[in-house]
TrEMBL record:
It comes from Actinoplanes italicus. The lineage of its organism: Bacteria, Bacillati, Actinomycetota, Actinomycetes, Micromonosporales. It comes from the Bacteria. Keywords: DNA-binding, Transcription, Transcription regulation. It holds the Pfam family LacI. This is LacI family transcriptional regulator. GO terms for molecular function: DNA-binding transcription factor activity; transcription cis-regulatory region binding.
Length: 336
């Protein structure tokens, strides 16, 4: 005969073990203020010894919090989460949330149905806060979030406005680093493969390239818009070779696009870096797998996710954290 499952201890039993009142034990469990250190230690010790697990529904009613935060991405394809960039963001967010009692909900919110589900989730306070990343120009998500009035942290600044709380990488400085490196190698006919110019990151990295060229007294030598994918980078590189066959260097605004550019150059019989030097951005794993390996701009993508989550936790707790710009640096390999 199967043994009866072990009965879970009650809040009253935890309070009795700790030698405190039921209300005091409840305040500790709900992380309420104005609890003495001795009381908190006694209750936490009793919880550990007894294996007490708070009732999440009761806790939500008591604290008006769900214990859940959302990460929303304006995209429809679930395979997006396998993309190395987004995978590292998610790892970073999850790592930071492991230090808390919060759970992560991933939301794809590009289609009308996806946005409707997210709108309902926010309006019904189904989450305590939200993180948003990879927004494009005129994306409705910021308005949806603002109307809900929930704490929100942005990964990267949206086009046309600066949110109250955001974490970003130094995309402008990184793009200038990449372009300055190519100029320092003696390259003068430097082209650019941009990300989508409907995104702030695509615009800012392109502006960094332009600024570095202007400061060096050079004119931009051709630009093609990509989409941050390897296939998009290859297509953009072919277009640049057709329009500017004399180019001697390319700054691609992501490693995926740079890898596509290297492949297109090889197909065209152009050697890298002897004839055309290539620099990417992100320092993803693909940067070490191209032939030659990519010189690129490193940004700490996991740190981006970690800092977004930590900032959101602080906002939910009633704090006023400052927005954050993470540093970038050049990593030299064989492509430039």
């Amino acid at each position: 005969m199967a043994a009866n499952p072990r009965r879970q201890p009650t809040l009253d039993e935890v309070a009795e073990r700790a030698g405190v009142s039921r209300s005091a034990a409840s305040r500790v469990i709900n992380n309420a203020p104005h609890v003495s250190r001795a009381t908190r230690d006694a209750v936490e010790k009793a919880i550990r010894e007894m294996g007490y697990l708070p009732n999440r529904t009761a806790r939500a009613l008591a604290t008006q919090q769900t214990g859940i935060v959302a990460l929303a991405i304006p995209h429809d394809d679930p395979e997006l989460f396998a993309d190395p960039f987004f995978a590292q963001v998610i790892v970073g967010v999850s790592t930071a949330l492991e230090e808390t009692d919060l759970h992560l909900l991933l939301c794809l919110a590009s289609s009308g149905r996806g946005r409707s589900r997210l709108t309902n989730l926010l309006r019904t306070r189904g989450v305590d806060g939200i993180m948003l990343i990879a927004l494009r120009e005129n994306d409705p998500l910021p308005d949806i979030v603002e109307q809900a009035g929930l704490p929100a942290v942005y990964g990267g600044r949206p086009v046309h406005f600066e949110p109250r709380w955001y974490v970003d990488s130094d995309n402008l400085g990184g793009a200038r680093l990449a372009t300055d490196h190519l100029i320092g190698l003696g390259r003068r006919r430097i082209a650019s493969i941009t990300g989508q110019l409907s995104t702030e990151v695509g615009r800012v990295r392109y502006r960094g390239y332009q600024e570095a060229m202007i400061i060096a007294g050079l004119a931009p030598h051709g630009t093609a818009e990509g989409d941050f994918t390897e296939a998009g980078g290859a297509a953009a590189m072919r277009a640049l070779l057709e329009a500017h066959p004399d180019l001697d260097a390319v700054f691609a605004a992501s490693d995926n696009m740079a890898a596509g550019a290297v492949r297109a150059l090889a197909e065209a019989g152009r050697s890298v870096p002897d004839e055309v030097a290539v620099v990417g951005f992100d320092d993803l794993g693909i940067a070490e797998r191209t032939d030659p390996a990519l010189t690129t701009v490193h940004q700490s993508i996991q740190s981006l996710g970690q800092e977004m989550a930590r900032m959101l936790v602080a906002v939910i707790a009633g704090q006023e954290p400052a927005s954050l710009i993470l540093p970038t640096r050049l990593v030299q390999r064989g492509s430039a």
